[in-house]
Amino acid sequence: MSNAGDLLKVEGLTAGYGAAPVLHEVTLSVGAGRIVAVLGANGAGKTTLLRTLSGLLPLAAGRVMFDGLDLRGVKVEKMVRHGIAHVPEGRGVVTELTVDENLRLGGLWRKPREPLDEIYDLFPALAQRKNHLGHQLSGGERQMLAIGRALAAKPRLLLLDEPSLGLAPKITSQIMGLLRDLRDRTGLAVLLVEQNVRSALSIADEGIVLNLGRIAAREKADKLADDADLRHAYLGF
Amino acid sequence: MTIVERLATTTKNRQKSRQNRFVPLAGVLVGAAVIVVLTYTLPPFRNYQLATIGAYLCVTAGLTVLTGLNGQLSLGHGALMATGAYTLALWQDRFNLLLPGIVLAVVVTTLAGGVIGLAAARLRGPYLAGLTLAVAVVVPSITSTFDNTFNSDQGLSVALNPPPGVIPVEQWQVWICWAGALLTVLFLAYLVRGRFGRDMRAVRDDETAAKLAGVGVARTQVLAFVVSAACAGLSGALFAVLAQSVSPGAFPLTLSLFLVMAIVIGGLGRLTGALIGAFLLVALPSVAQSIAEDAGSQHLEGNLALTFFGVVLVVVMLAAPGGLASMKFPRKIRKQKGQE
Amino acid sequence: MDRFLYLTFDGLSRGAVYAAFALALVLIWRAARIVNFAQGAMAVATAYVGYSVASATGSYWLGFVVAIAGGLVLGAVVERVVMRFVDHSSPLNGVVVALGLVLIIQGVLGMIYGNDYRPAEAPFSRDAFQIGGVTLLSRFDLFVFGAVGAVVVLLTLLFTRTSTGLRMRAAAFAPDVSRLLGVPVGGMLTLGWALAAAVGSLAGMLVIPTELGLHPNAMDLLFISAFTAAVLGGLDSPVGAVVGGLVVGLLLTYVSGYLGANVAPMAVLILLVVVLLSRPDGLFSKAKARTA
């Protein structure tokens, strides 16, 4: 299913912690302007996949190409310069810094630096709390801050880990809607790891089901949502 | 591993632990015999060095139990040694009865250790290290604060009766120091094998879990500090006997740092490690001294040993993966690695 | 009353030095969660180098600059070559390695320079001048206030107004997240150590002329006082370090002035014990830090 226009191409990726791999020969691709949802049970290797792609975990085997560049050996702190932003699970807001400082941090590597107005327009709630410390924010605000901070880096690919975790359904759908708008408007590609299968598939173009570190299925999102057998086997609904 | 094999090793382990009960006693008896024979064959200077090893062994053994088994790092044991040494000096000045004097030195240092230990039990990591460092830096200066009693930097001389019969002084010193050292080791060996040793390890590994298992965390920590302080007091008293004088210059901060180095290099938490450490504390400066003499440089003297100790300490800490911890339980680490 | 005023100014001057040194400890603590027990020895080493340059060139100020620059280099080297490779799973490991560095530095200094006190001149007169008939403070005291004040202002600007400061703070608080945002965390750590060591070197250059002179152990007691100051203010708090430094400086000067200089070391120890047991998190620290 991969084609020449793919932004991210992963081939035969094997990775994990220490000697025991969590992921086995994972192959996938994400095209520009596409949202790909990665689904699967706890422990399927979804978070490990994102951590490996952004360089937090080493690659045991396989190849990761991003826009023609081999990412093997690229340091974590350089990823953002190549256009990959990773919003880790648990949001990763630096709670000791203010909202504004967190956002500035996201765009720091860009020269010249651009004002953050665009991000504040996107998230009006953050603009009101500009000078609040990270730990004073609600869960939804933190998630918005984490995503906003990643967007401040002007990435071409967003790796998003469980954005709906612990959020009210209303806020989750707000965030999902925002992602869809961004994709449509800016051509952002998103690799979206989600437990919340329904809301992930509601915006995704494509879905990948991971099971025990291997790809169990890869389908168009609407097809995946309709495939009752698959849902029962791997997604539990 | 098959079940039969596993059963076999379990039985072996049980036999081993039964045998283990007599290992310390046997080791100490053999050690005593070796020491006595050595004292008749070694020249006086070597005997003096041997005695110094014995005196160091008292404090390193106590410290390795505190740091290795209970996880409390003390940089103040040099000051506790000074406490024991000055107590003995003041006592000997009035009564000149060595054995009660040594006992008193141990008692006084134990009390001092109790006070520090009470504070220490509430502190962790760098805070405890900082407090004990302050003790090591400040206590020697007390001799100037109360110079009528302690005679400031000059220090005090230690009155001693000549050894009984025709025994040379150095030989007599070895016997005294090693009697103290071997008794200390024997005491500690049985202490750490018992319930107290188990409590200490439990506190070191996980305080919360220890507390849930009914171990009195604070009590165990204070007790560990007190025990190691008593050992330091004995060691200090023995040093007073060896040098026949006490002065603040004999108990500088460097001494406390040397003690930490000795137990880290010897292998934390092991009494044999304490012995290796005590040996190094005498051997390394001696080697450095002879190098310095050959080079004819006054600046090298002492400083070469200092540098050498520092380098060894840093290299050991960096080379042993996992730092102190891997030296504490090499077996456990190996097992974990195997599982990964 | 005149004496009290004089002691107060003297104490503030001494406290300013403690504040700078405590600030250096806090900088490293915030960046790496290590109390740098080698800070005193490192500062002495750079002071020796500084005074060597000063006596070779005849220019105190050249030596002064070399000492501070030496601090930057030494701090970076210590982090890059040694501290980076320490296993931090137990807080004891960092402490023990730092103590090893103390032994190495003091040994090497002794081998090169010997263990006698070497005189260290002050760049300004240490004779106190009179204001309105009251003897208050010396030109050197003014220099101390100026230098420490400048450091405090510069560090504040660095951390609150610059991107590098923001990166350093982020790297210290959340290393993994910061790396994902493109912050070179390792580099920030090296920079933190370098800055801290330079501030420590400054404190050394400010305190050594007021003590017996240059000696490998010259900063041992200062380290204890500054550690007390840092703990008093809370190891996490730069503001606390400054206030703590001034408080400890004043207290020790009053004790020395009214009870005798011999009592001062005891007073430090007692103060440290009281602080550790009553306000272990310090006066200015919000986070629970004692067990960290």
UniProtKB/TrEMBL annotation, chain A:
Gene3D superfamilies hit by this protein: P-loop containing nucleotide triphosphate hydrolases
Top-level taxon in the UniProt lineage: Bacteria
InterPro entries given in the database record: AAA+_ATPase (IPR003593), ABC_transporter-like_ATP-bd (IPR003439), ABC_transporter-like_CS (IPR017871), BCAA_Transport_ATP-bd_LivF (IPR052156), P-loop_NTPase (IPR027417)
MF annotations from Gene Ontology: ATP binding
SUPFAM superfamilies according to UniProt: P-loop containing nucleoside triphosphate hydrolases (SSF52540)
Domain ABC transporter: 8-237
Protein keywords: Amino-acid transport, ATP-binding, Nucleotide-binding, Transport
Family named by the database record: Belongs to the ABC transporter superfamily.
Protein name, per record: ABC transporter ATP-binding protein
Automatic annotation (TrEMBL), chain B:
Coiled-coil ranges per UniProt: none
Tagged with keyword Ribosomal protein: no
Localization, UniProt: Cell membrane
Top-rank taxon: Bacteria
Transmembrane segments: 22-42, 48-66, 73-91, 97-120, 127-146, 172-192, 222-243, 249-268, 275-292, 304-327
CDD domains according to UniProt: TM_PBP1_LivM_like
Main location: membrane
A Pfam family the protein falls into: BPD_transp_2
Keywords: Cell membrane, Membrane, Transmembrane, Transmembrane helix
Matching InterPro entries: ABC_transp_permease, LivM-like
Membrane topology: Multi-pass membrane protein
PANTHER family: HIGH-AFFINITY BRANCHED-CHAIN AMINO ACID TRANSPORT PROTEIN BRAE (PTHR30482:SF10), HIGH-AFFINITY BRANCHED-CHAIN AMINO ACID TRANSPORT SYSTEM PERMEASE (PTHR30482)
Name of the protein in its database record: Branched-chain amino acid ABC transporter permease
UniProtKB/TrEMBL annotation, chain C:
Pfam families: BPD_transp_2 (PF02653)
Cellular compartment(s): Cell membrane
UniProtKB keywords: Amino-acid transport, Cell membrane, Membrane, Transmembrane, Transmembrane helix, Transport
Signal peptide feature range: none
Membrane topology type: Multi-pass membrane protein
Transmembrane segments: 12-29, 36-54, 60-82, 94-114, 142-159, 180-208, 263-280
UniProt-listed InterPro entries: ABC_transp_permease, BCAA_transport_permease
Coarse class of the protein's main subcellular location: membrane
Superkingdom of origin organism: Bacteria
Similarity annotation: Belongs to the binding-protein-dependent transport system permease family. LivHM subfamily.
Protein name: Branched-chain amino acid ABC transporter permease
Source organism of the structure: Paractinoplanes globisporus
